[in-house]
Design goal:
By secondary structure, this protein is mainly beta. It is about 15% helix and about 40% strand. The protein has helices at about 1-10, 200-220; strands at about 15-20, 25-30, 45-50, 60-70, 75-85, 105-110, 120-130, 140-145, 155-160, 170-175, 180, 185, 185-190. The strands form two sheets. Strands 1, 2, 4, 7, 9, 12 and 13 form a seven-stranded antiparallel beta sheet that branches. The protein has a six-stranded antiparallel beta sheet with strand order 6-5-8-3-10-11, with no helix packed on it. A hairpin with a 5-residue loop joins strand 10 (about 170-175) and strand 11. Helix 1 (about 1-10) runs antiparallel to helix 2 (about 200-220). The protein starts with a helix and ends with a helix.
Length: about 220
């Protein structure tokens, strides 16, 4: 009985939580969380991430950004969505909806105001788990902004890979000029499910069968 329980535990591997940071900070940027250029529409921001950064299928449970310059959030309502992008890094369309994949999902929605913390503080959005398979395409972060208050006197900036992200990510937005081949350094928290190999499961069944045979032999003695 105890051997059987141990074998079940050995071959039933639980989901494991991990993090992945995409990009290396070379400066800071305040789009979309810290404000905007007042001459633009300022209601949608998209950033797409290279699928090659993910080693396999994951369920994303958190998205984090690190404070680069301390300041205030842009007071507004935010809707954060994830999908497998219909377009690749450096190929986003200026028609936002054309970038959204068929698996589009609301990750979280919330209101923001105030100060997220001092320099180096990680600010995390924890939302509904999004199942992402990198073999199906790049990952799209889609942020819709509404009910904006006045611009903060001192905007918060988050870590960004400015100038050129070397294909790691790119962004499309209406907070300033439409396209940038760089963007915010982003950390994803995710779960992976490790599935037992068929050969391992087969070995477990063989061992259990052998144990049963041994027990029958002992009973006959």
């Amino acid at each position: 009985r105890y051997l059987a329980a141990a074998l079940v535990m050995a071959f039933a591997v639980p989901a494991m939580a991990d993090t992945l940071t995409i990009g290396t900070a070379s400066g800071g940027n305040h789009f979309p969380w810290g404000g905007h250029a007042t001459t633009y529409t300022r209601d949608r921001f998209q950033q797409v991430y290279d699928s090659d950064e993910f080693s396999g299928p994951v369920t994303i449970t958190g998205i984090s950004f690190t404070v680069y310059i301390e300041g205030e959030f842009q007071a507004a309502d935010y809707e954060v969505r994830l999908s497998t992008s219909a377009n690749d890094v450096n190929s986003l369309s200026s028609t936002f909806d054309d970038n959204v994949g068929s698996d589009d999902q609301l990750f979280d929605d919330f209101s923001l105001s105030g100060n997220p913390g001092s320099v180096g503080t990680a600010w995390t959005i924890t939302g509904t788990g999004f199942a992402y398979d990198p073999t199906q395409g790049d990952l799209l972060l889609d942020v819709l902004v509404s009910n904006q208050g006045s611009s903060p006197s001192r905007r918060v900036y988050f870590d960004a890979m400015n100038g050129d992200a070397n294909g790691l990510f790119s962004r499309m937005h209406d907070f300033g000029t439409n396209f940038d081949d760089w963007g915010l350094v982003t950390t994803f928290t995710y779960n992976t499910e490790v599935v037992p190999l068929p050969s391992a499961a087969g070995l477990g069944l063989v061992l259990l069968g052998g144990l049963a045979v041994v027990r029958r032999i002992r009973r006959r003695r």
